[in-house]
Amino acid sequence: MRLKDRVPLGAKGPLGVVVDPMTWRAAPYLLVTGFFGLGWFVVLGLAVPLSLTLAVVWVGVPLMMATVLIWRGGAMLERRMLRAAFGVRIADPYRPRPEGGVGAHLRWLLSDPATWQDLGYLLMLLPLGAVEVVLTFTGWFTSVMLLIQPLLLALHGRSEDYDELVVDDWMSAGLVAFFGAVVLVLTAYLVRGMAWLHGTLATVLLGGNQEERLRASRARGIDAAEAERRRIERDLHDGAQQRLLSVAVDLGRAQSKFDTDPDEVRALITQAHAGTKAAIAELRNLARGIHPAILSDRGLDAALSGLAARAPIRVDVSVELEDRPPPAVESIAYFTVAETLTNMAKHSGATEASVTVIRDHRGVVVDVWDNGIGGAALSPGGGLSGLADRAATIDGVLVVHSPLGGPTLVRAELPCEW
Questions:
Q1: What's the rounded Cα separation, in Å, for the pair 351 and 261?
Q2: Which CA distances in Å does 274 have to 245, 246, 281, 348, 351?
Q3: CATH class entry, domain 297-415
Q4: CA-based angle 417:291:309, to the nearest 5?
Q5: b/e map 256-288, b = 16+ CB within 10 Å
Q6: What is the pairing mode between strands 314-320 and 352-359?
Q7: Cα dihedral value 153, 157, 159, 164, nearest 10
Q8: Distance between CA 228 and CA 289 in Å, rounded?
Q9: Which controlled-vocabulary keywords does the entry list (predicted)?
Q10: Neighbours of 7 (CB within 10 A)
Q11: Tens of pLDDT along 239-291?
Q12: How far is CA 29 from CA 14, 35, 85, 285, in A?
């Protein structure tokens, strides 16, 4: 998550900010975040001192681990809620889980800077959330009460008294409603401003160490490139190289028998010709695996349609891109779909699937859905893990939702600028 991807303040004009869905998604979160903060303050204010006190007799060690896992879970939930409310995407920044017993896991939990940043964010929710709740509730309540004055006048013949202003005629009711509309617009801007501020603080605290994540992303990219190089080398050695060697042997034998056994020479040349065509096909498939020509020539829509046509089941493809994204994004999107459809054909038992590619203000989003049996996961060394490594090279994210029984959704979020 980069700072420039935070929720925008809104530059659509007053009416645009009021009707923007982002405003109405942010408002409910801002109305309840203070209560979340109060709950976390009470829970952590009791659990942390208690576990530290009991740690001297070792009883507090498992309690501390449980407490840390609870606040980590709360931070993970907050990241999902922030994405739904503000459109802020923050990946979980935790270090990989180590092998070993309780001691190794405790060191892993306590030595990870993201653990303590999570705690700081959850404790910050109480003061920040209290301000957000008061300002949000006051703004919406005031604007609504002012806007409904003409309705109250029509129903009861008299509305409310506001100090020296008595709303008992249509002119004063209209004036009050006008001020209500002004307050509504100001409240919408206030909501967007608080959402921007909250998203900024959440990005800093919940996003972990950006430099460390960047180093890890680069390392994963280098590992992915090295694995791809080994795959190409292996495919060349086991495929096209062996076929071309067989062609050379056949041609050598044909040359030695050119004058003595014409029939054998013709058979050997025929065999060499077939081997040459097979080698060409191997090289073509290998080149397509490195970077398909149709992707460079005609873009994602045509390339993904070609993948869908070769799939064993019906795959609906929808690509909604006005302009072509950068080549790296196109390539990663293509191979994400290709690998996911391959896994689907091998393991899912699906009868239908769909591929959707859209572009929002942050980048390209690729969704691959199927109605199979589910159970797909980002396991180390697996195909989906390799796709996540590819996406990480451009600071992208791969998310897999595949409960047992299905359906499966693989989503790649690929930024167009990095």
A1: 56
A2: 13, 11, 11, 36, 37
A3: alpha beta
A4: 105
A5: eeeeeeeeebeebeebbeebbebbeebbeeeee
A6: parallel
A7: 120
A8: 10
A9: ATP-binding, Kinase, Membrane, Nucleotide-binding, Phosphoprotein, Transferase, Transmembrane, Transmembrane helix, Two-component regulatory system
A10: 23
A11: 666 777 777 777 787 777 777 777 777 787 888 787 777 777 666 665 555 55
A12: 21, 10, 6, 51
> Average model confidence (pLDDT) for the chain?
78
- Do residues 136 and 31 touch, judged by C-beta distance below 8 A? yes
For the chain, give every domain's residue range. Answer: 3-208, 218-290, 297-415
Query: CB neighbours of 319 closer than 8 A, spacing ≥ 6?
Result: 300, 301, 304, 356, 357
Closest among 329, 349, 353 to 412, alpha carbons compared: 329
Question: Residue 316 pairs with which residues in a beta bridge?
Answer: 354
In 3-state terms, the chain is what percent helix, strand and coil (to 5)? 70, 10, 20
Find residue 412's DSSP bridge partners.
Answer: 366, 398
Structure tokens at 114: 């993201």
Single-letter residue type at 142: T
Q: How far is CA 272 from the centre of its chain?
A: 50
* Full 3-state SS string of 241-297: HHHHHHHHHHHHHHHHCCCCCHHHHHHHHHHHHHHHHHHHHHHHHHHHHHCCHHHHH
Where would I find the beta strands (DSSP E) of 9-108?
Answer: none
User: How open is the CA angle 91-94-96, to the nearest 5 degrees?
Assistant: 120
* Cis amide prior to 150 (ω within 30 degrees): no
Q: Can you tell me the distance from the alpha carbon of 208 to that of 2, in angstroms, rounded to the nearest whole number?
A: 11
pTM exceeds 0.70, yes or no: no
DSSP string, 119-153: HHHHHHHHHHHHHHHHHHHHHHHHHHHHHTHHHHH
pLDDT for 18-44, tens place per residue? Answer: 777 888 888 899 999 989 989 999 998
DSSP string, 159-218: --EETTEE--SHHHHHHHHHHHHHHHHHHHHHHHHHHHHHHHHHHHHHT--HHHHHHHHH
85: nearest Cα among 142, 132, 151: 132
Take residue 337 and report the two structure tokens written for it.
């779909």
- What is d(CA 356, CA 337) in angstroms, rounded to the nearest whole number? 10
